[in-house]
Amino acid sequence: MSARPVIKADAAMLAAQPFAAAPPPPRHDPRDDELASLRKEVAALQEALKAAAQAQQSAVAKAREEARIEGLRAAEKDDKARSATLRATGDKALQLWREKLAELDGLAAALAREALEKLLGPAAMEAELVQRALTRHLAMLGREAVLAIHVSADDFDEDEARRLEEAGANAPIRRDSALSAGECRIDLKLGHVDIGPRTQWSLLRAELDALVGDTAGA
């Protein structure tokens, strides 16, 4: 039985074969880092708010207990003054609770305002936020009711506006130089609606400023 021939590759031929180029590494988007950092800051603010609420509850419970003990001691000494003392200490506890609640409301508004300012600050991704808001509102309004969509020329160039329209807007996308960055307007058959994150944030910030001012003056 004859042995099979062993095929040996020519070393020079193998050396001449180029290796397949490794795929390029994925591009790192610095906005991902910024968004992750903002999410961490928002989470930290939420934790601070939770801790403040717990501290407020503990302070109210302690004040009520102290008021109760003080009232009982006063009642043992003087039955005649018991009712007045209990009313006074009850009013004191209630006033303390109201003050703590006002402080907590002001803290919540201030924390919310700070978090939103970080998310919608000068470095925010205006175009991405506008696109998200647009997708959400088109789903609620119904695309058949939309006549045109106006976006800021600062947020979208011609190619980006065309891609946004082709992505499913089902309405003409018009770059409007009169709109500031972060603004967006949808023309409807029965009027129009401003949905830009900047517009919504301006309205919300006014409400938060009023709430913080009210609690500070209380």
Automatic annotation (TrEMBL):
Look up keyword Coiled coil and say if it applies: yes
UniProt keywords, alphabetically = Coiled coil
Name the coiled-coil region(s): 35-66
Q: Does the keyword Coiled coil apply?
A: yes
Question: Protein name, please?
Answer: Flagellar assembly protein FliH/Type III secretion system HrpE domain-containing protein
